[in-house]
Amino acid sequence: MLSGMSDTPVKQQSTAAFHGQAVASFSVALAATAIGIFRLDANAWVRGFLAVAVLYLVTSAFTLAKVIRDRQEAGQIVSRVDQARLEKLLAEHDPFEKP
């Protein structure tokens, strides 16, 4: 028996608790870093440089995560298209048909 497209695994969604934990963790880390830079015993230009470096690091991390997610999703789409083509070929193939 052939398995149809309805048998493909459903994409896992993160829970609300996991999402909340991720947002809270990010917020705490960013706030702690900002407070640390603000209270640092250094010149204003050193604190400014560190603040810009942290913002650059955060935006780079978001961009990297998006690129990795996009590549993974593209691979899943190609796999589903290939699976659909194979299922179509198998459904149309009659092994008892004379050539």
From TrEMBL:
Q: In its keyword annotation, does this UniProt entry include Ligase?
A: no
Record-annotated YiaAB two helix domain positions:
18-70
Q: Which residues cross the membrane?
A: 21-38, 44-65
InterPro entries according to UniProt:
YiaA-like, YiaAB
UniProt xrefs under Pfam families: YiaAB
Is the keyword Membrane in the record?
yes
What is the name of this protein?
YiaA/YiaB family inner membrane protein
Provide the species name: Streptomyces similanensis
